[in-house]
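Is this the right way to post structure tokens for a design question? Let me know if I should format differently. Anyway, here goes:
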């Protein structure tokens, strides 16, 4: 007889057992998975994959493989007479839409069958060094002070430090550990069938993900499960003398033809079965070294699609605790926290699955909005957050924020998966010494600005609907002295001073991208080597963000006021509308004619030079355009009002818009005259500004 020794024995190779094995392996434990079936599931069973579950798949690196088997369907529930008829009602899933999920998470839900997910998880367990044995059943279990001893039939025995029962409602681990079973309620007896062909291809359109057929002779629920397969589930009434054996292939064929509205349908029946839609819970989830998870701990109905997701979350929460206990990092109190956190939640979700009506907390609040309480969680006394928006309080899921880590785009959630993480503010480097231990605890300290870029460089998603909007940035902080840290909080993009991707770029944008400016240490209007650069020291990231935001505001005001400026400085008032909308002044030089007094262009940035001589010689482009337009047609001399305007309104412009003088003129790239005079450096070349009033030619304006 073969004897095997391992750290964690997992009984059951379903989603719960494989999730436990994956998490324990990633944290350094040895894992053996045994399954009495000959292989993974051959029927779809559950199909809904929630946002949080896809986050876990993303952490484990299997999200793409899982999504490859996802079903392409309309994410709505339809109520219709037959499948071929127009729906009488269309309602949304309890799961969020892609847009809603990506606003609070790096992943989004999917419709994927369980028989596709299980092989993906089993392959990842083997890749990490775990062992998965199919066709091996647990026949006996005995607890000892050192762990558990399990008998695996003729295969031999196994010694393990801990055993996890993920073997369904008729769990052998739960029975061997002496854990009771409590019935909560039932919704009736049902039969189902798995069949082909793909109904979407037959009807030639994209069908909803769940279809409730209300036909009196074929009332059922139709669900696409991928690979061209569909399932039909129908309730039968044993009190009326009906039995599951009455649903023969011939009866199923007739029912499917009526339910789909396709008289010539010839379905290929792949599998049939009967089950009781009930909810049950275990009286405890732990008994010494034995734990129960998934359907072995809380059996749920398919309502709201929370059964498989809850089972995977159980395995994720238990796996790392077992690995830390095996390695000696944590004690028995950490294992007790699993029961304190997950047992009440499992009972509440099992009771919810008995309710057929949609509940207000369905969707993201149930998936992401849970607050855990246990002896290992420090309660700060604050009230739990409402809904699914997290605030980084103890016991809650951390908020999702996009950051840059090792030069790559990552979520803050990625930082917490494989080790304990301390996030500190820019002055929180002291945390590194404060939390330094003996090296046995997997612990990392990340300081904003040093390990994580600040909000100076916002991330813009490259795919999907979020292409035109900036992501949330990280706002961190620390107390004076840098001895304490503050948790990161998400900052909506409209509250940051980051650059907007839809702002009009300057003329030199294509040659000087933000990445090059960060590398070279320059900002708009402050180039390395220029005479007006304040110092040779490169600006820090927050300084760069502030200057870049000021430049964006200036360019946007400039672009929006150009068309109005060209109309306001037209040479003559030639229409009643123009004369009525602007003040006019008589001109003696023009023979008593009427000319337009140029209005000050709102938002025209002006340069405040370093010397009075340079300030008097410089005229803003808007003032030059206004002065040329207001010249007398008889003498060609500028009007007094226009000349005075070019020198008297610049300072008021700056006061009106609240912009510093140097930052306001950054877009014009003006440089003061060097001490050596004009011979030391030629004046900047004036470029044509296009067709804008009288400046269309781009010729230099006489001083």
């Amino acid at each position: 007889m073969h004897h095997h020794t391992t750290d964690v024995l997992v009984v059951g190779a379903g989603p719960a057992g494989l999730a436990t094995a994956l998490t324990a392996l990633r944290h350094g434990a040895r894992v053996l998975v045994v399954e009495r079936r000959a292989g993974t599931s051959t029927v779809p069973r559950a199909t809904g994959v929630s946002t949080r579950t896809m986050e876990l798949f993303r952490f484990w690196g299997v999200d793409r493989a899982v999504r490859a088997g996802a079903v392409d369907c309309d994410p709505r529930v339809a109520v219709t007479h037959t499948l071929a008829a127009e729906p009488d009602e269309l309602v949304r899933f309890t799961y969020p839409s892609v847009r809603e999920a990506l606003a609070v998470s790096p992943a989004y839900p999917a419709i994927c069958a369980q028989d596709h997910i299980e092989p993906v998880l089993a392959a990842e367990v083997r890749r990490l060094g775990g062992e998965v044995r199919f066709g091996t059943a647990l026949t006996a279990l005995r607890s000892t002070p050192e762990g558990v001893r399990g008998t695996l039939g003729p295969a031999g025995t196994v010694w393990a430090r801990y055993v996890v029962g993920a073997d369904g409602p008729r769990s052998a681990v739960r029975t061997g550990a002496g854990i009771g079973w409590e019935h909560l309620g039932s919704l009736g007896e049902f039969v189902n069938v798995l069949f082909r062909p793909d109904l979407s291809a037959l009807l030639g359109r994209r069908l909803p993900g769940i279809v409730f057929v209300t036909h009196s002779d074929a009332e059922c629920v139709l669900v696409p499960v991928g690979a061209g397969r569909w399932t039909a589930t129908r309730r039968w009434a044993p009190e009326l003398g009906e039995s599951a054996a009455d649903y023969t292939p011939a009866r199923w064929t007739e029912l499917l033809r009526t339910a789909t509205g396709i008289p010539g349908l010839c379905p290929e029946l792949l599998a049939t079965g009967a089950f009781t839609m009930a909810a049950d819970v275990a009286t405890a989830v732990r008994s010494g070294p034995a734990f129960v998870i998934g359907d072995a701990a809380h059996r749920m109905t398919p309502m709201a699609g929370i059964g498989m997701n809850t089972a995977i979350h159980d395995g994720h929460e238990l796996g790392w605790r077992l690995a830390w206990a095996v390695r000696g990092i944590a004690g028995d109190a950490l294992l007790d926290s699993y029961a304190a956190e997950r047992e009440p939640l499992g009972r509440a979700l099992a009771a919810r699955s008995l309710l057929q009506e949609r509940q207000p907390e369905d969707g993201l609040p149930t998936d992401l909005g849970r607050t855990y309480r246990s002896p290992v969680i420090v309660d700060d006394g604050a009230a739990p957050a409402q809904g699914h928006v997290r605030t980084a309080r103890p016991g809650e899921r951390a908020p999702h924020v996009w950051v840059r880590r090792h030069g790559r785009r990552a979520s803050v959630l990625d930082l917490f998966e494989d080790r304990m993480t301390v996030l500190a503010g820019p002055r929180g480097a002291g945390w590194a010494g404060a939390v330094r231990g003996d090296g046995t605890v997997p612990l990392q300290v990340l300081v904003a600005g040093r390990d994580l870029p600040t909000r100076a460089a916002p991330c813009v998603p490259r795919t999907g609907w979020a292409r035109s909007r900036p992501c949330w940035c990280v706002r961190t902080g620390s107390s004076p002295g840098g001895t304490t840290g503050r948790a990161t909080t998400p900052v909506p993009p409209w509250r940051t001073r980051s650059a907007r991707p839809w702002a009009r770029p300057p003329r030199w944008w294509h040659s000087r991208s933000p990445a090059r400016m960060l590398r070279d240490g320059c900002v708009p209007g402050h180039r390395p080597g220029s005479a007006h650069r304040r110092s040779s020291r490169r600006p820090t990231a927050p300084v760069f963000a502030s200057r870049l935001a000021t430049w964006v505001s200036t360019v946007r005001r400039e672009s929006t006021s150009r068309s109005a400026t060209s109309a306001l400085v037209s040479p003559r008032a030639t229409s009643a509308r123009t004369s009525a909308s602007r003040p006019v002044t008589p001109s003696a030089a023009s023979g008593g004619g009427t000319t337009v007094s140029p209005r000050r262009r709102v938002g025209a940035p002006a340069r405040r030079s370093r010397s009075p001589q340079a300030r008097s010689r410089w005229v803003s482009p808007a003032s030059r355009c206004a002065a040329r337009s207001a010249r007398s047609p008889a003498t060609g001399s500028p009007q007094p009002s226009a000349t005075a305007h070019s020198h008297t309104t610049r300072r008021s412009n700056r006061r009106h818009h609240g912009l510093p003088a140097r930052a306001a003129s950054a877009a014009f790239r003006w440089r003061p005259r060097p001490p050596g005079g004009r011979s030391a450096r030629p004046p900047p070349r004036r470029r044509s500004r296009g067709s804008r009033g009288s400046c269309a030619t781009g010729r230099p304006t006489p001083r």
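Format looks fine. Someone answered above. Worth noting: The radius of gyration is 35 Å. The first strand starts at residue 3 and ends at 11.
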